[in-house]
């Protein structure tokens, strides 16, 4: 192919025992959008890092615009017109948009920085591609979606002709993601070539011209978007048929947890405004909403890390004041926090230590930790919840995201909690792990646990929840039954479209 | 009360303030440059001591005063190189490495001094920098005596503060330094080598610290004794925070601290006999802590300060 903008030939890369990329070849035409699909650990990010010169491949070459790139030289990749948009943004929050974009674009020996010219160029690009941005704004003050725009602008400012995006929608809301993909199409129309990494089938099907599937470091398939289906891609990606679990009917029992008019004020702001909800044992209540609308505070309230300002909280009909973390543990409230790396587990500590931390008293003997019992307990979790990639004594950090989440789930579910609080339990996990996590949550429901599921994933909530309430700006909508809900209705609820009108089918 | 006003109104106080401030300005600028790139350099106290010693020693052995400053700068740069090798290349703890450099450089300074200069009852002296006579300005009433009777290095220090402020805020290399201190991965992704930037900033910053130390022996005083830096390096580290990592504010902070210090020196003579004079020695530090508490709460710390950068790791 002579019109190929980018050509990767026979690239392999080994890290220790792990062959991250195994003889991968792929090409990208001008004006084409290619999606690189694969589960976590399939080698997508490694391949992109090689492409951008962060890693040196063991074998193989990268050719951009007909010229072979020297390996391991990011600067050469930039000069050849490759722009990388990282999953974790490479931005400095304390600097302005313009400063972030201009870094490294001028000679370091130059006695003065031509800010005016840089500003003009940036505004020109932002106009051309419809990526609106204020050059003087401090990056830390921007929303996540805007920060991503800055990342893209940074690449375009360096005259990128080939854009490489690593999981561009991982941190975006649905609406932001849709906007981003229409920008992609516009860029392709203007002659840019794009590669984006993803494990979300919907966006891959909707956006890409061609889809390349990686699995276990190998390129397993290449399909035109028009000639494949989500089911086929899922199978290619996982290597076997994936069936998502189904929620069977259950008979809810007593009220497990109930909030009546609870308001929580944090730092002078009402994060939760007079919310009402009740979760019955043996059912899942889904709280749907765009991230940042009070979900974090709701989770903290029930985990005992924040107190009420007003309103009442009941557990199994008993009036409780403010919960403390110890109360939550004693009552049997299992907690799956939103940010598993920061709040869910301590990466530097061993798996067994993470497993017993909240039940330390039970694993103490004569003032010392009973290591043997603790390690046995952790071992039980690992086998019962199919946690792979570590033994009870290995460091928790070494687990993949999905396995760490299974560990956290196991730690909570192994003792059959009466209440389970699951915040974004499947965020950032790949297909196989999502199915496993969902399965476990439904198991808990079947066993009579009252489950409160906080999520911004419509599919997840519709699949798992019996009843659904939307959270918007700290307020909760009245609940609707899952069978009465559809994506459109929930979308309206998430936009706050319930106030001032009767929700007739409120439960 | 009138005594206080008398002190503030004396031209001698203001002349002293500029003199006291000079080593602080140089040291603070050095620490600030290094921290802006993400490296804390607690070697400052030792580097200043060594600079004071080696600068003086060079002049004592017949070198010119400016050569003495240059030698001090070079010695600072070498200690900077050591600190950079430990913290940037090896990625070791910046605190531990810095304290190690301070202990090593101070002890080395005492040792070298003992080795080169015979023990004597009164330490040997050199002829230090003389006040510059600036035509017209120096002969102004009050202002002339207060502000224009300084030695050349003092004016140089003030000029350096302005230059560094410009360098950091307005030039591409300044932006590269700031980006490296905020997010070295982002700098790398834009084709800047964070390692090179950090080496440069630490070495240049340490050179400034060395010059700051040498000012003590070549201008403020005329001989060297081992305890003469007296915690000025630590004051500089605090002044960087007080200045929110901005050179122009560092200049202001150094002058403010020098004002407290010059003021207490005079207070000692006015109130001698009333209370032990040691109480006045505390005053500048107390006031600095108060000022720091007020100012530093709004400070914007370089996000990658004290975080070693390793390629390919996130």
TrEMBL record, chain A:
Gene3D superfamilies from the UniProt entry: P-loop containing nucleotide triphosphate hydrolases
Pfam families per the UniProt record, alphabetical: ABC_tran
Keyword set, alphabetical order: ATP-binding, Nucleotide-binding, Repeat, Sugar transport, Transport
Sequence ranges assigned to domain ABC transporter in this UniProt record: 6-241, 257-498
Single GO MF annotation: ATP hydrolysis activity
UniProt superkingdom: Bacteria
InterPro entries named among the record's database cross-references: AAA+_ATPase, ABC_carbohydrate_import_ATPase, ABC_transporter-like_ATP-bd, ABC_transporter-like_CS, P-loop_NTPase
Homology family: Belongs to the ABC transporter superfamily.
PANTHER family tied to this protein: CARBOHYDRATE TRANSPORT ATP-BINDING PROTEIN MG119-RELATED, GALACTOFURANOSE TRANSPORTER ATP-BINDING PROTEIN YTFR
Protein's name according to its UniProt entry: Uncharacterized ABC transporter ATP-binding protein yufO
Lineage of the species this protein comes from: Bacteria, Pseudomonadati, Pseudomonadota, Alphaproteobacteria, Hyphomicrobiales
From TrEMBL, chain B:
CDD domains hit by this protein: TM_PBP1_transp_TpRbsC_like
Transmembrane segments: 12-32, 39-59, 65-84, 96-113, 147-169, 199-218, 279-296
Major subcellular location class: membrane
GO cellular component terms listed in the entry, alphabetical order: plasma membrane
Species per Swiss-Prot/TrEMBL record: Mesorhizobium metallidurans STM 2683
Keywords for this protein: Cell membrane, Membrane, Transmembrane, Transmembrane helix
Protein name as it appears in the record: Inner-membrane translocator
Pfam families membership: BPD_transp_2
GO molecular function, one term: transmembrane transporter activity
InterPro entries, alphabetized: ABC_transp_permease
């Amino acid at each position: 192919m002579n019109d190929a903008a980018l050509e990767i030939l026979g690239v392999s890369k080994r890290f220790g025992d792990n062959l991250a990329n195994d003889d991968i070849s792929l090409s990208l035409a001008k004006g084409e959008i290619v999606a690189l699909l694969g589960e976590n650990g399939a080698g997508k990010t490694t391949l992109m890092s090689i492409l951008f010169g962060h890693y040196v491949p063991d074998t193989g070459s990268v050719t951009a615009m007909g010229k072979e790139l020297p390996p391991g030289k990011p600067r050469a990749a930039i000069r050849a017109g490759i722009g990388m948009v990282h999953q974790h943004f490479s931005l400095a929050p304390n600097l302005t948009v313009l400063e972030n974009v201009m870094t490294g674009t001028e000679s370091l020996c130059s006695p003065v920085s031509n800010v005016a010219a840089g500003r003009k160029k940036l505004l020109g690009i932002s106009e051309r591609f419809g990526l609106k941005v204020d050059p003087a704004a401090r990056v830390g003050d921007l929303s996540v979606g805007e920060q991503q725009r800055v990342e893209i602008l940074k690449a375009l400012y360096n005259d990128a002709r080939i854009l490489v995006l690593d999981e561009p929608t991982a941190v975006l809301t649905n609406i932001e993601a849709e906007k981003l993909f229409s920008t992609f199409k516009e860029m392709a129309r203007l002659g840019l070539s794009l590669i984006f990494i993803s494990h979300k089938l919907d966006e891959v099907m909707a956006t890409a011209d061609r889809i390349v599937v990686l699995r276990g470091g190998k390129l397993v398939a290449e399909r035109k978007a028009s000639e494949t289906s989500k089911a086929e891609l899922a199978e290619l990606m996982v290597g076997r048929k994936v069936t998502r679990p189904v929620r069977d009917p259950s008979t809810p029992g007593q009220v497990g947890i109930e909030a009546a008019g609870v308001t929580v004020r944090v730092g002078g702001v009402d994060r939760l405004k007079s919310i009402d909800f009740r979760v019955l044992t043996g059912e899942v209540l889904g709280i749907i909403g765009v991230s940042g609308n009070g979900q974090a505070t709701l989770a903290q309230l029930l985990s005992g890390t924040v107190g009420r300002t007003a309103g009442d909280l009941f557990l199994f009909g008993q009036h409780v004041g403010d919960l403390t973390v110890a109360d939550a543990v004693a009552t049997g409230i299992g907690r799956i926090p939103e940010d598993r790396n920061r709040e869910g587990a301590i990466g530097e500590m061993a798996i067994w230590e993470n497993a017993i931390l909240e039940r330390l008293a039970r694993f103490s003997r004569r003032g010392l930790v009973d290591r043997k019992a603790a390690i046995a307990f952790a071992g039980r979790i690992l086998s019962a919840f199919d946690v792979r990639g570590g033994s009870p004594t290995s460091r928790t950090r070494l687990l993949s995201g999905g396995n760490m989440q299974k560990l956290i789930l196991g730690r909570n579910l192994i003792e059959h909690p009466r209440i389970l609080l699951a915040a974004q339990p499947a965020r950032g996990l790949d297909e196989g792990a999502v199915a496993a996590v969902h399965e476990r949550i439904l198991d808990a429901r079947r066993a009579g646990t009252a489950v409160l599921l906080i999520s911004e994933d419509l599919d997840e909530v519709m699949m798992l929840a019996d009843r659904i309430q939307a959270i918007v700006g700290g307020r909760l909508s009245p609940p609707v039954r899952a069978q009465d809900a559809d994506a459109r209705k929930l979308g309206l609820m998430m936009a706050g479209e319930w106030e001032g009108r009767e929700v007739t089918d409120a439960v | 009360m009138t005594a206080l006003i008398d002190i503030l109104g004396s031209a001698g106080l203001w002349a002293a303030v500029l003199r006291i401030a000079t080593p602080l300005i140089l040291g603070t600028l050095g620490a600030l440059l290094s921290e802006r790139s993400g490296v804390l350099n607690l070697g400052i106290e030792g580097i200043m001591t060594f600079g004071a010693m080696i600068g003086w020693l060079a002049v004592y052995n017949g070198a010119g005063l400016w050569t003495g400053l240059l030698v001090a700068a070079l010695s600072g740069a070498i200690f900077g190189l050591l600190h950079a090798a430990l913290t940037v290349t090896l990625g070791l703890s910046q605190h531990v490495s810095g304290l190690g450099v301070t202990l090593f450089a101070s002890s080395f300074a005492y040792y070298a001094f003992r080795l080169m200069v015979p023990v004597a009852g009164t330490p040997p002296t050199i002829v230090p920098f003389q006040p510059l006579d600036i035509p017209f300005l120096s002969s102004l009433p009050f202002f002339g005596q207060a502000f224009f009777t300084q030695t050349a290095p003092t004016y140089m220090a003030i000029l350096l503060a302005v230059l560094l402020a410009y360098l950091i805020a307005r030039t591409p290399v300044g932006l590269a330094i700031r980006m490296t201190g905020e997010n070295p991965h982002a700098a790398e992704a834009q084709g800047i080598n964070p390692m090179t930037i950090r080496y440069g900033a630490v070495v240049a910053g340490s050179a400034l610290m060395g010059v700051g130390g040498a000012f003590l022996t070549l201008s403020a005083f005329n001989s060297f004794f081992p305890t003469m830096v007296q915690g000025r390096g630590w004051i500089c580290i605090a002044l960087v925070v007080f200045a929110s990592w901005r050179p122009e504010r560092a200049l202001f902070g150094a002058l403010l601290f020098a004002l407290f210090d010059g003021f207490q020196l005079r207070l000692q003579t006015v109130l001698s006999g009333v209370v032990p004079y040691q109480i006045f020695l505390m005053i500048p530090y107390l006031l600095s802590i108060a000022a720091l508490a007020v100012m530093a709460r709004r400070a914007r710390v370089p996000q990658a300060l004290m975080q070693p950068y390793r390629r390919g790791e996130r």
